[in-house]
Amino acid sequence: MFEQIKLSRRSFMESAALTIASFGLGTLAWAKAGPELSALARATTWLSSLPLTESELQGKVILIDFWTYTCINWRRQLPYVRAWAEKYKDRGFLVIGVHSPEFSFEKNIENIRWALKDMRIDYPVVVDSDHAIWRAFKNEYWPALYFIDAKGRIRHQVFGEGEYQKSEVVIQKLLAEAGASGNPGGLVSVNADGAEAAADWDELRSGENYVGYERTQDFAGSVKDDKPHVYTPPRHVSLNSWSLAGDWTMGREAIRLNQPNGRILYRFHARDLHLVMGAPSKTPVRFRMSIDGQAPEMAHGVDVDSRGYGSVIEPRMYQLVRQSTPISDRQFEIEFLDAGVEAFSFTFG
């Protein structure tokens, strides 16, 4: 069933990782010299570090990690990148995160600073809000990992989640080639929880879906672009379809609630459900959610209590559902008790 549904970039990146990550693993013979590292000079801001020059990077094995802080695929990869950064930091290995935003609010430097603190990221991060570094690498995906040897050549790349053991073997081989001493051996073991826990791929039947009109799919109703409209949901929402109830404005990138008590309905099949949303006024927006018309109880995510209550403040990804087996088609509904919330996309795990 997994192969039969469209999982947006998630399924493509998973298969791409399987293809690309296996290329050249035996001898790391594949390499290309290029100007990609020099593109770091185009960064608008460096965080967690002073700007690093090419001369300071010379001789180091570098992992370039393209990310954007609301991406669920990147969040599930992050525990491994953090662990590699810590394990190999004294052996000439350096992780550089390149934050290339997807949504407009992800260009806000204070939002990125919040993400670094909340997600415990202390390796250097460059802010690539105009995607100049993204274009220099000819990158197309979040997340994307580029493994660069001590001579500045890209030797390996992985698009999407997975292939963690093979990726760490690449790091070890590149460090050995560079003459690093004191090989710590073995592979990292992570114990990820919350939004960072690996997806339940066997039960995943719902793919990422945006709610702005430019990229949304399977909206059960008639869209009124950029205009306030009182939406009425259908009596039945089919699997992987969604609808609105109440006074909303559907914009290109997001939907915005104009009056209190607006609702979003989504029928899904997955262990986890996340919703990217925020309160632009910085005033908390209260909500309550339900699954099949009932409080979530033990199926609540980290950003909601067992009764289904929570609040939206900073713009980010909120984990609303984390259910246990057996997984089945479920009806998710969230009602916002205050106006002003913006919602951007659903993701699942």
Describe what this molecule looks like in 3D.
With 349 residues, the protein is α+β, with helices and mostly antiparallel strands. It folds into 2 domains: 2-196, Glutaredoxin; 208-348, Jelly Rolls, CATH 2.60.120. Helix content is 18%, strand content 28%. It is built from 6 helices and 18 strands. Strands 8, 9, 10, 11, 12, 13, 14, 15, 16, 17 and 18 form an 11-stranded antiparallel sheet that branches. A 7-stranded mixed sheet has the order 1-7-6-3-4-5-2. A hairpin with a 4-residue loop joins strand 10 and strand 11 (255-257). Residues 1-33 have low confidence and may be disordered.
CATH superfamily of the largest domain: Glutaredoxin
CATH top level of the largest domain? Answer: Alpha Beta
Mean pLDDT: 90
* Number of strand segments: 18
DSSP summary: helix tally = 6
Low-confidence stretches: 1-33
Rg from alpha-carbon coordinates: 21 Å
List the helices and strands in order.
Answer: HEEHEHEHEHEEHEEEEEEEEEEE
What's the number of domains?
2
Shape estimate: elongated
How much strand? 25-35%
Distance between the termini: 15 Å
Would you tell me the structural class of the helices and strands?
A: alpha+beta
Percent range for helical residues?
Answer: 10-25%
Largest sheet: 11 strands, antiparallel
For this structure, the CATH topology of the largest domain is Glutaredoxin
CATH architecture call of the largest domain: 3-Layer(aba) Sandwich
